[in-house]
Amino acid sequence: MSSLRIKFYFVAIITIALLLHYAFPKVLAQQAETDSPTDSNNSNNDTECGGGTISNSEYDFGLHLGALFIILVTSSFGAFIPVLSKRYTALQIPSIAFKVAKNFGTGVILATAFIHMLPSAFANLTNPCLPSLWNTYPAFAGAIAMGSALMIFFIEYLTIKVTEEYEEKFLSEANSPDNATHNNSNINHEVAVDIGEREEKKLESHKSHLPHNHRHMLILDNRTRTVGLVVLEAGICFHSVIIGMTLSVTTGSDFISLLCALIFHQMFEGLGLGSRIAELSFPRESLRPWLMSLAYGITTPFGIAIGLATRYSYNPESQTALIVQGVLDAISAGILLYASMVELLAADFIIDSRIRKSKASDQIFAFSLLILGAVIMALIGRWA
């Protein structure tokens, strides 16, 4: 039941983004047509602001196609390695590597929102080539980011509220005198399945010491973290499509610089996301961790493919492109700011007491990785 609700809310996020992608720019394009005859700043948009499309002579299709596969491999490698390591003993890596990827990845995702998305949204939505509507209110990007963060907060709040009510109802039925014996075995089975076979033996050894409400809190916590991770990945995927399209229409020396930056960007971000996916408890036969890793791995290549298909007609400097990129970057920034602050930083360092109760050296190590990830991603922002 709750897994269906999680899927529903994820679809709702995608639907809202698509509506903004297609409907919002058209409304503003109409506004541009209305403003352009009387607005001297926009009278020469087509000649001065359009930038022009790419000519066949200056575009190296083979190089850009190769970049698609390079990004596909690096993105998938980063996202799949932690999941593969968790599932298969032959590929196991030390637990310290998961901690490194997790904390380093948190810094990467935080910097992605602040350095890569939010400034890009402001730059696109305050471009002087846009209609006067955008320049009379230069805080559009911030307002959209704030709105998307609040939207995600309400979606997550409602999801957790519904899940808690469902769990409480199920728990009350399980604790009824008539069904106690029968439901106890069902609850124990559900916990074992929900936490996964890897942890099943450990759970069984302590099962007799766990009250029903404690066992259900384990299930609820895993579902709550799953919702948070879906939110995080949605924000990353929106942005990934845009950067993929940007790479596909970039030429010359700028293309090489951007490609190198994106290789590191996708690798680090993928490791951070993959370590979070691997940390969740899924049944061994579940496809969810694989599908979540796959979604990240193919999103940027998907954006590159769109750019390759439209390379001669797509103009990244056109009004519609600037608005679409700016709006999607602002939405992604809001989602990632919320997810990185609440789902990652607060969850790992404030709500979860394990780091606070660990040795001082372990705490310094965790914070150092967090800062290192943010700093490296901020430096990559020079090119991507």
Can you tell me about this structure?
The two termini are 41 Å apart. α3 (61-87) packs parallel to α10 (253-279) and α4 (95-125) packs parallel to α13. The model is unreliable at 21-29, 31-47 and 197-218 (pLDDT under 50). It is built from 13 helices and no strands. The protein has one domain (2-29, 62-380). The chain has 384 residues and is mostly helical. It comes from Ambispora gerdemannii. The chain crosses the membrane at residues 61-84, 104-125, 137-160, 227-249, 255-278, 290-310, 330-351, 363-383. Belongs to the ZIP transporter (TC 2.A.5) family. This is 4085_t:CDS:1. It is found in: Membrane.
Outline: globular
| Largest sheet data | none
Structural Rg: 23 Å
What integer is the average pLDDT? 77
The total tally of domains equals: 1
Transmembrane segments: 61-84, 104-125, 137-160, 227-249, 255-278, 290-310, 330-351, 363-383
Keywords: Ion transport, Membrane, Signal, Transmembrane, Transmembrane helix, Transport
InterPro entries: ZIP, Zn/Fe_permease_fun/pln
GO molecular function, one term: zinc ion transmembrane transporter activity
